[in-house]
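Dear colleague,

As promised, here are the two records you asked about, laid out in our usual form so they can be pasted straight into your sheet.

NAME FIELD: protein one
SEQUENCE, THEN STRUCTURE:
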Amino acid sequence: MNMLRTGMLLAALTALFMGVGYLVGGPGGMMLAFLFAAGTNLFAYWNSDKMVLRMYRAEQVDDTHASGAVRRYASMVRELAENAGLPEPKVYIIENPQPNAFATGRNPENAAVAATTGLLRILNENELAGVMAHELAHVKNRDTLTMTVTATFAGAITMLANFAMFFGGNRNNGGGIIGALAIMILAPMAAALVQMAISRGREYEADRMGAEICGRPDWLASALAKISNGAAQIPNETAERHPETGQLMIINPLSGRGADNLFSTHPATQNRIDRLMQMAGVDRSLRLDPDGPSPFEGRPRGPWG
């Protein structure tokens, strides 16, 4: 059912792309948009992961890296992948002070996970394990292809909508400059809403499955509190330049600039924490304070604790 819903939403993105093409160039523009959409889908299938990693200047690492923290991170991903029954993904590090992480790749055999240096700096190893288990859950659910394709589509729709401003829209539709302005504003908003619909449900499911992969929902809950606090204080300049990639991250990277929650591709962090705390058997009324004592203190610790 989830795959059917996602397929329908991807079809909606394609229809939106063609609709913008029609408003910009009439029937010919719609046909060009359709061909471009088909080409975009094909290109995104093979290359969207490489584009995103290059965009964030991600560096591939392994457990021979000079930094001890990076070595432990790479080794941890390998162990978690074994727990999840997945092929070992490529592991990347991104030089960025904002704590965040994402997964990408067209299938589990060609997957990659990436974490920022800011993430390694603020999380303990248990919390990092929870985050990487979440990202591997995206890989296991094959969310990575869907999310990278929708990010590529959303960027292309925004680009096409901006063309409408330069060309004034299709002269035959009578909209003129007003119609062009409407396309430029409304089309990206519609694309953002579709991205939101695709991404929010997948985040909840990745939280649930990630908690099962690492065996400790509280690790991820504590990590989400810290990451959300850090993302609210530290802007991510790359994400600001490419907001369509925000849905790939475990926490909305645009929150440092007060991104509108209406168009957020992520569920409210506290809602995610509440669900994880419920899985852990902890009172849902508790609120995690990144700088205070953990409500999970005293519970059995895992292989990274």
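NAME FIELD: protein two
SEQUENCE, THEN STRUCTURE:
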Amino acid sequence: MIHRPRAAFEKITPPPSASFTCRRLAGQRFDAPYHYHPELELTWIVHSSGHRFVGDSVAQFSAGDLALIGTNLPHVWINPPTCRRAETVVVQFLPEFLGAHFFRLPEMTPILRLFERAGRGLTFSSPARKKVSIAMEGLVEKTGPARLLTLLEILATLAADRGARPLCSARYAPTQDPTAGEKINAVYRHLTANFRETLFQADLARDFGLSPAAFSRFFRRTTGRGFTETLNDMRLGHACELLRDTNQTIAEICYACGFENLANFNRQFRRRHGLSPREWRAAAV
């Protein structure tokens, strides 16, 4: 039976001496549930890996990952059960944390546009990530005006990044049903732990006391995408990692990622990346 964690809404309260929160979180694994909040969130992964779920986006993450999450956009970072160290720096702030009109000043227009684009979640180019990671490293230790000015410099850097890309599809509409958040969080954790194995939607449906059809409707309504599509994306992301970092054959990678036949693996990979696994590996070297 899948464990069902706490509700999805997170209430964030900055300390009395600050207008936003900035925390370094460290432990064996990230333990936050699939959640949402009215604050924007900038998350930099210092150490660990796993899967990042943001709205209808699913992708692998590793050290150096940087994402800006918009207001009330559901999200979670999930480590596999084998993870032994997870560390991140998280900055959270309301869009109007410096007053209702500050980001409407002419000089702040690029940052205001950044906030609007973050409604779909954003990931950033390698040069921007490297520059911002240095600033994020020192942000936790700073106080007063120095901390605020550093955050504004970070936001200006991200606003100028031409390589920034949205995470969610344009069609995605967030759901803020806490009960759905509890259930989908449990499903995501189960998938992260077991995506390499043979999985059946009917088995998960039974764990939640739903028919396969009802589970399928719940999953698509909550995440904006189908269960099989999500599972395939997790497997294909792992395949890319193995293609890049190992000398395993294409067939070995196919089965190591949970696919049950090579033809389907090649077809799904080409559909997702526009290249065959062999072509992708050659381009990634």
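A couple of things worth noting about protein two: Residues 275 and 281 are 9 Å apart (CA to CA). The radius of gyration is 20 Å.

Best,
R.
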